[in-house]
UniProtKB/TrEMBL annotation, chain A:
Family annotation (InterPro entries): NIR_SIR_4Fe-4S, NiRdtase/SiRdtase_haem-b_fer, Nit/Sulf_reduc_fer-like_dom_sf, NO2/SO3_Rdtase_4Fe4S_dom, NO2/SO3_Rdtase_4Fe4S_sf
Protein known as: Nitrite and sulfite reductase 4Fe-4S region
Location of the Nitrite/sulphite reductase 4Fe-4S domain: 121-275, 409-544
Ranges for domain Nitrite/Sulfite reductase ferredoxin-like: 54-112, 342-395
GO molecular function: 4 iron, 4 sulfur cluster binding; heme binding; metal ion binding; oxidoreductase activity
Keyword field: 4Fe-4S, Heme, Iron, Iron-sulfur, Metal-binding, Oxidoreductase
Claim: 4Fe-4S is one of the keywords in the record: yes
Length: 546, 103
């Protein structure tokens, strides 16, 4: 199975954490810990107090999990929650209705399948996110997950980085196509090859979304992979030393890199790096090789048919939209969209979660991925099995053929669940996906990434949406700002606010008007984003506000 | 908005995390049971938190009229009801007027 397997050390660490937290919960319930004392402890275990109940965020490091783990996620939804879970833009899952007294049992259930809620909260290095097609994509230079796993081992419980000025997010990719919004993270890493054919890492530092969105500049063009830990240690040390602990809004590394400039930040990192290299912190080459061994290709059936019978038109539509090229002949990558028209983006019922687990077991070498766009990937599927998979998905309401179309909306939980929210996100997503429910209309519009956040924290990545929507509180009323021109990936850009905000219905109309400008003015082969970039904001503004 | 402006006390149940409302002599999941809290809110919140009956108690503004209590801010109305996108899981699952109460 192409997945990292916990060794006894990893498992002992997770088990010890369960025992520790069980004790902390017992002390809280007995009154020997106050909420003030308990709060940081529960947050270290992914347990938040949200709008309606406790919310548990479960880590899915680099978005990879096996069918047993996925099955457990479905069972937890049934046993301890209300029969569903929410997949997030951080490639995690959240449960919305958790009882404090149940959390030790949930963590024990998770630990039994090598899962936990560590690094899902607090000012630490959070779980590394990664390209959800890692190890499968036809365009990949190298699988980034061994590096992500190395990062996990280095960063988990790293005492020096447990109380950083703010949370810290790392994303890693292994292709030129950036499917992980890599440059919008505190650190983005791309596995590359140099002219000599050697593998290395290109390191970007200082990106992020939130209140002050920034695109990370390149800080290191080419880093020998075995020096990754030392280099990141240096990046973090410079941040830990100078990051603004006095002001929450200026505490992210992006502010530091912006204020001192990429060149000065690079200079300081290189100085620190030179020092750290003398300490011999790097894992031995054999350790990286050992980790790589876990991610070796499964036994692909390369004799399997390389063609797809497209005689069922609905199936053909889904193949065109949701199936991507795989590196192995006869195989394909399936993305299951969790975005039915009128549905809640990223939500899946316990039954759907277990079905996806079963499909992974039966058809995808036991493996699944969670995407930052709140969808699920079956990474290694035989083309010959696609029709059977599609039929099973269809029967479960999971055959939405809308990947990367206007119906494939990213939306954060917003004011329906989140205590930080200013406005609801989900109802806006529902109204837009209903307005554009006609598959022919979605196909006509083509690629359009629409992203909605319920507040400036930008969990819904609104800055990076071709169309972005930001919910704000205008004198106690929900109001929605429209942004255009954002993008993640190789052509990362930040959206700009078009003008005054709208009501919930008004923002849906505004989105429709923006798409109409595109349809009227597009030139051959242009996506919405291309037309917007060519024309600028003026015609869109005129159509929307004129 | 018509009706008398009152202050009520809310928080979450320690064990279940449920939204709860101070009734004058205890806590209820239903805002209809809430009672205006008067000047003693801080003291009630402190002693109830110390007794582990509630977490993070705080005072909010609400309107009181013939139809009952309605929080002034939409966030508190959603807390009082449940997620508007899953009314089946809310406290008024079969009430067609529930959405209008939020708006
Ligand atoms: S963007 Fe705001 S409202 Fe949405 S989940 Fe994040 S913090 Fe909550």
């Amino acid at each position: 199975m192409p997945m990292y397997q916990y060794d006894t050390h990893d498992q002992a660490m997770v088990d010890a954490r369960v025992a520790e937290f069980s004790d902390q919960v017992a002390r809280r319930l007995a009154g020997t810990l106050s909420e003030e004392q308990f709060r940081p402890l529960r947050l270290k275990n992914g347990l938040y107090l949200q709008l309606h109940a406790y919310m548990l965020r479960v880590a899915i490091p680099y978005g990879t999990l096996n069918s047993r783990q996925m099955h457990m996620l479905g069972d937890i939804a049934d046993k301890y929650d209300r029969g569903y879970g929410h997949f997030t833009t951080r490639q995690n899952i959240q449960y919305n209705w958790i009882k404090l007294e149940d959390t030790p049992a949930i963590l024990a259930d998770l630990a039994s399948v090598g899962m936990h809620a560590i690094q899902t909260s607090g000012n630490c290095i959070r779980n590394t996110t990664a390209d959800h097609f890692a190890g499968a994509a036809a365009d990949e230079v190298a699988d980034p997950r061994p590096y992500a796993e190395l990062l996990r081992q280095w960063s988990t419980f790293h005492p020096e980085f447990d109380y950083l000025p703010r949370k810290f997010k790392v994303a890693i990719i292994g292709s030129d196509t950036d499917r992980a919004a890599m440059r919008l993270h505190d650190i983005g890493i791309q596995v590359v090859k140099n002219d000599a054919g050697e593998t290395g890492l290109k390191v970007y530092v200082g990106g992020g979304m939130g209140r002050t969105p920034m695109i990370a500049p390149v800080i290191r063009e080419f880093l020998p992979p075995l020096q990754m830990i030392s280099y990141l240690e240096a990046c973090l040390r410079v941040y830990n030393r100078y990051g603004r602990r006095d002001n929450k809004y200026k505490a992210r590394i992006k502010i530091l890199v912006h204020e001192i400039g990429a060149d000065e930040y690079r200079r300081q990192v290189e100085e620190e790096f030179a020092h750290i290299l003398t300490l011999g912190l790097e894992p031995p080459p054999a350790e990286l090789e050992r980790i790589k061994g876990f991610f070796a290709d499964p036994a692909f059936d390369t004799q399997s048919a390389d063609t797809i019978d497209r005689s069922d038109p609905d199936f053909a539509l889904w193949v065109d939209q949701n199936v991507h090229a795989h590196k192995a002949p006869g195989h394909a990558i399936v993305t299951v969209s969790l975005k039915p028209a009128g549905g809640i983006p990223g939500d899946a019922s316990a039954d759907q979660i277990r079905l996806l687990a079963d499909l992974a077991r039966d058809y995808s070498f036991d493996e699944l991925r969670v995407t930052h766009a709140q969808n699920i990937v079956l990474p290694h599927v035989r083309k010959a099995d696609l029709y059977a998979i599609w039929q099973k998905l269809d029967a479960a309401g999971l055959a939405n053929a809308n990947l990367d179309l206007i119906g494939d909306i990213i939306a954060c939980p917003g004011l329906d669940y989140c205590s930080l929210a200013n406005a609801r996100s989900i109802p806006v997503a529902q109204k837009i996906s209903e307005r554009f429910a006609d598959p022919a209309r979605q196909a006509e519009i083509g690629e359009l990434k629409l992203k909605i956040s319920g507040c400036i924290n930008a969990c819904g990545h609104h800055h990076a949406g071709h169309i972005g929507i930001l919910g704000v509180d205008r004198k106690g009323t929900e109001n929605y700002q429209l942004l255009l021109g954002g993008s993640e990936g190789a052509d990362t850009s930040l959206g700009t606010i078009v003008g005054p905000g709208f009501s919930e219905d008004g923002i849906v109309d505004a989105v429709e008007k923006a798409t109409q400008v595109y349809l009227d003015r597009r030139e051959d082969g242009e996506r919405f984003l291309d037309t917007y970039r060519r024309l600028g904001v003026a015609p869109f503004k005129e159509a929307i506000y004129g | 908005m018509s009706g008398e402006r009152v202050k009520i006390l809310t928080g979450n149940d320690l064990l279940t995390g449920d939204v709860t409302w101070w009734t004058g002599n205890g806590w209820s999941r239903h805002i209809a049971d809430a009672a205006p809290v008067g000047d003693d809110a801080t003291q009630i919140a402190q002693s109830e938190e110390a007794d582990r009956k509630v977490v993070g108690a705080y005072v909010i503004d609400a309107q009181s009229d013939a139809e009952g209590l309605r929080p002034a801010h939409i966030k508190e109305r959603i807390r009082a009801l449940g997620p508007t996108v899953r009314l089946d899981l809310s406290l008024r699952p079969n009430d067609p007027a529930a959405s209008a109460w939020i708006a």
